[in-house]
């Protein structure tokens, strides 16, 4: 696939089953994703890989953070089991004279989305999930986050459901997004 085909084919995969990429393949793809643009080459992020029972530990932490009746807690805990592989995205910002925090967040998102496209190209499905629990204290604890680090949620990764046809994607209105200073811009301008 070329980049255009990969971009067009990518969807957030809400139904994921096993298998997912193994540690070796994941490391290979992360290495490639590290070529994403990154001001100052700070690489201000890290990923925590959660498989098998590690997902259960995360689920328990999410349930502790969410609270509620036992049935609600069980439902929350089960969310961490929706894919064979969860990758916690952790922002590790540094004080830098030229690269503010927002740029470090932007670089992190560039790397994560590059990883998403690489996964797509290899036939793996993924979805980035966030929510109020992502950076809650029990979740931070189980992920072992340092004080300045921030959990940005999880990439859920696995085998996408091949029976689900690609949802049609309405074309984006590029003209509404484009402007210029001296002349109209965009197709048909
Ligand atoms: C930073 C970020 C956080 C997201 N969080 C969630 C989430 O918590 N739950 C969810 O179902 N989808 C989440 N998504 C996926 C979006 O809902 C999804 O990208 C959007 O619906 C468009 O669908 P598509 O990715 O298939 O084009 C998130 C996406 C991003 C980039």
UniProtKB/TrEMBL annotation:
It holds the Pfam family Nitroreductase. It is an enzyme of class 1 (oxidoreductase). Residues 9-158 form the Nitroreductase domain. Binds 1 FMN per subunit. Keywords: Flavoprotein, FMN, NAD, NADP, Oxidoreductase. The keyword Flavoprotein applies. Signal peptide: none annotated. It comes from the Bacteria. The keyword tRNA-binding does not apply. One of its GO terms (molecular function) is oxidoreductase activity. PANTHER family: NAD(P)H NITROREDUCTASE YDJA-RELATED (PTHR43821). Belongs to the nitroreductase family. This is Putative NAD(P)H nitroreductase.
């Amino acid at each position: 696939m070329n980049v255009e085909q990969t971009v067009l084919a990518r969807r957030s995969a809400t139904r994921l089953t096993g298998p997912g990429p193994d540690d070796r393949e994941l490391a290979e793809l992360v290495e490639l994703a590290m070529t994403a643009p990154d001001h100052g080459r700070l690489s201000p992020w890290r990923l925590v890989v959660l498989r098998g029972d590690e997902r259960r530990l995360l689920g328990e932490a999410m349930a502790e953070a969410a609270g509620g009746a036992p049935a609600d807690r069980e439902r929350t805990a089960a969310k961490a089991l929706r894919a064979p592989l969860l990758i916690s995205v952790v922002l590790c910002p540094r004080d830098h004279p030229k690269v503010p925090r927002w740029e470090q967040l932007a670089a992190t998102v560039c790397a994560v989305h590059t990883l998403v496209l690489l996964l797509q190209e290899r036939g793996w499905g993924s979805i980035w999930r966030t929510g109020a629990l992502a950076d809650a204290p029990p979740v931070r604890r189980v992920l072992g986050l340092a004080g300045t680090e921030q959990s940005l949620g999880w990439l859920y990764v696995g085998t996408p459901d091949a029976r689900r046809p690609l949802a049609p994607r309405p074309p984006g209105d590029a003209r509404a997004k484009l402007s210029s200073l001296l002349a109209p811009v965009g197709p048909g301008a």
